[in-house]
Design brief:
The complex is a heterodimer of chains A (222) and B (124).
Chain A: H1 22-33, H2 35-41, E1 45-49, H3 55-63, E2 69-74, H4 77-89, E3 94-98, E4 110-115, H5 140-148, H6 156-168, E5 169-180, H7 185-194, E6 197-207, E7 210-219
Parallel strand pairs in A: 1-2, 1-4, 2-3, 4-5
Antiparallel strand pairs in A: 5-7, 6-7
Helix pairs in contact in A: 1-3
Chain B: H1 3-6, E1 24-32, H2 39-45, H3 51-60, H4 79-90, E2 92-100, E3 107-111, E4 114-115
Classes of the chains: A alpha/beta (222), B alpha+beta (124).
Family (chain A): Belongs to the eukaryotic/archaeal PrmC-related family.
GO cellular component, one term (chain A): nucleus
GO molecular function (chain A): nucleic acid binding; protein-glutamine N-methyltransferase activity
Chain lengths: 222, 124
């Protein structure tokens, strides 16, 4: 899978939008490794939550050769705009939406869901008001805080998403979720089982200072 | 925002809203983006789409004469209609306009091609 060009993004963009890093590339690698599965699935709607620079959903859209509808959401308008520009720059068909998680999409419509959440363990205060529009012109600092501050166990936003997962995924839908060891992936896997989902550690990688996982989540076969 | 995307958008996250679909679309500026026609993909996507919202989008985009108001039983061998659906769903990019919640009247602006559907804390 080709890494999209993102040379159009500048230092000025990265003041507001998360710069692609090891975690982004791990998610790309996981999607590449799971292409045989995705080719059988033939997803019609793919959504990335918190798309930031947009390189992941752009890469997937290119890979699926425009045979799938690809949407990106972010609460940060600058990220929505960066995603739109990245898609254009790479001639990919991706629409960008500003909303919270996937809360504007029709129920059970998403075939492939991607999420590289704000996973860094922080105090919950750093997260406060993150889910809402708040002021009309959020500060630079706050824009970027959205992209990494995860609250207790780095799990606040992820836990909210998992609670909504049944409403988001289509019957054959799949979620690829990036996690940090501090997010307690085994606990998340157990929690997902309780919600009737099967989750496996699909890929893992040690990078300087962090240990990352990609969880692959599907519905429990009935 | 493409009109295929429009078909998936709801305002059901607003407190008290039951269905929130389809949103009332207004287009004030649009751009035509030519993309490769893939009849198989259009046909595969159709079961996922809500036809009334497809037709509603066609009316707003002034393409209603191209799209039947009621979904035809079989579209697979109707290449002409598939081509028209392709144009409607994938080639019209709404740059400026708005989406309106059918139940509360809450307006979501579309600016530079991006619908802003982020709610305020007191709305959820």
């Amino acid at each position: 899978m080709e890494t999209p060009h993102f040379d159009h993004l500048t230092a000025q963009d990265y003041e507001h939008v998360y710069e692609p890093a090891e975690d982004s590339f791990l998610l790309l690698d996981a999607l590449e490794a799971d292409l045989p599965f995705l080719n059988v699935l033939q997803p019609r709607l793919c959504v990335e939550i918190g798309s930031g620079s947009g390189i992941i959903i752009t890469a997937l859209s290119k890979q699926l050769a425009n045979t799938s509808l690809c949407l990106a959401t972010d609460i940060n308008l600058k990220a929505c705009d960066a995603t739109r520009r990245t898609a254009r720059h790479n001639e990919a068909r991706v629409d960008s939406l500003r909303c919270n998680l996937a809360d504007v999409l029709r129920k059970r419509s998403v075939d492939v869901l991607l999420f590289n959440p704000p996973y860094v363990v922080t105090s919950d205060e750093e997260l406060q008001c993150q889910m809402f529009a708040g002021g009309s012109n959020p500060s630079t600092e706050r824009n970027l805080v959205y992209s990494w501050a995860g609250g207790k166990d780095g799990r606040r936003v992820t836990d909210t998403l998992l609670q909504q997962l049944d409403d988001i995924l289509s019957p054959l839908g799949v979620l690829y979720l990036l996690l940090l060891r501090e997010n307690k992936p085994d606990e998340i896997i157990k929690r997902l089982e309780g919600l009737n989902f099967k989750a496996v550690k699909f890929m893992e990688r040690r990078i300087p200072g962090e240990y990352l996982y990609i969880l692959k989540v599907t519905r429990m076969p009935s | 925002m493409k009109l295929s995307t429009y078909n998936f958008l709801t305002s059901m996250a607003i407190k008290g809203v039951k269905v929130g679909f389809p949103l009332k679309l207004t287009i004030s500026k649009k751009e035509l983006v030519e993309t490769e026609f893939n009849p198989t993909f259009v046909e595969r996507l159709l079961p996922k789409l809500d036809w009334s919202a497809v037709y509603g989008a066609a009316q707003v985009a002034e393409l209603a004469e191209d799209i039947p108001a009621v979904q035809p039983e079989s579209i697979a061998d109707n290449e002409e209609l598939l081509q028209k659906l392709h144009h409607l769903l994938f080639e019209i990019d709404v740059l400026e306009g708005q989406l309106e919640c059918p139940e509360t009247g809450r307006i979501f602006p579309i600016t530079d091609g991006i619908p802003n559907m982020l709610l305020n804390e007191d709305e959820v």
